[in-house]
Structures
1.
Amino acid sequence: MKHILEREFLFQIVALILSFVVVHSVYIAIIRPNAEEVIAYEALMLEQGTPVDDRSAWVVLKDYEQETCFVLMFWALAIMTFKGSRIVAERKLFDKALIPVTEGSKILSEDARQLARPIEALPELSRDYLLPRVLSVALQRLGSGSNIQEISASIRDECDIESQRLDTELSMIRYIAWAIPSIGFIGTVRGIGSALADAHEAISGNIAGVTASLGVAFNSTFIALLISILIMFLSHQLTLQQERLVLSAQRYCDKNLLRHIKA
């Protein structure tokens, strides 16, 4: 488990750096230059008395708050992809005969050591997955002479601990889902503050500064809320898959181990 946590922490750091580099590069090379061209074109049209009604996506995306939201979005997606790939890898173990017991046979306490060998033969990374850990705990209790009720309780306890651990590991994704709308709100406050600072120009008839500042306010909130909706949806789907994984592990133990133990 320690190795998995170390790999995940390293992955999160690398994913954050890559997200920043990629998003910032796209903003510098594509989004902000196109936004400046659109803003210059709209200013030229206004000078000629021709208003532009189309809302350019480049202008909506150009500010620093939106850039930060996209960095956090791709970081969260990378973390969820990492966790999702682990769930897929863990589910593959459910198709393997980790407990070599034939239908109708009974398991005694002296069989625990023999039954544990396929689990011990797994790669080190796979042994840290939920199903091998739960089976190992159950077989240890079986080998020590515990009854079926005690073995079943140990399986439930291990699965409950895993559920709590998986829920705790989602705290970073929950934080990102909270931080994205907050960053959008920061853009709103910044835009409204700039608009108020340019209020004297609006009184004299020049509303360009106020309009641009209000655009910052509304665009940052708009993008942040859209990204937050996406992250929350994917986060709930990931939570659902984790819960199903724990339930599948319990059912696997009931079907392939508990019902074969001789009382």
Note: Residues 208-256 form the longest helix (49 residues).
2.
Amino acid sequence: MSRIADVFGKLASARRKALIPFVTAGDPAAGGTVELMHALVGAGADVIELGVPFSDPMADGPVIQRASERALAEGVSLDDVLGFVTAFRKRDSTTPVVLMGYANPIEAMGTEAFAGRAQTAGVDGVLVVDYPPEESAEFAALVRRHGIDLIFLLAPTSTKERIDSVARLASGYVYYVSLTGVTGASHLDVGGVGAKLAAIRRSISLPLGVGFGIRDGESARAVGKVADAVIVGSRIIQEMEQGDPAAAAARAATLVRSIREALDRP
């Protein structure tokens, strides 16, 4: 069983929801990424989504774009990101790590090389924003041979055909984008999210995580009533931006801990 499946299985048995924070590798400083990952786990994260910096993050709003720019200014590459995961695994052999990013860095490394190196580093899942499911069968088979789950995005506009395509290839969990737009938007309609998740569950049996628009413990708790996981990214990065970079991990952990407590509240 994969680490992702194991975590979701244990959470389901305990009637708890997964908390999945997103941070960009190398932000605010390359030397702090592994510390930040451990801090997030200590604060209650169940899975970590680690963004791979990219110069044209088309699905991301200004907050995550700034994070990518800072990481790229630090010289952080996909090679470095895999190194961060390797270092993280020296102390944490159980928390799943999902790399989230775009096709270009993977294609530049070579898909075969990437899959092998990701497995060696201890990566559990990959979400490539610009790999549509209709064109990803070969890549899905490749990463699966290396024990890595391929995670896809679905959105309010996703058709039945797109949902069925994801159902055929996805593993680990599915990331439902609660809003039409980019990361960091905030017009969250929990009722609409619940209705769409119910429709998706008719085709997909994997856990469903919801991201975009989750800002605090209360919005996370509301989404947790209809989803299997809540995914928080832009708000964490904003919190880190607002203080001394040396205290970024502590600031992120404080926010994540407050969200964890809200999710777990009876």
Note: The longest helix spans residues 248-264.
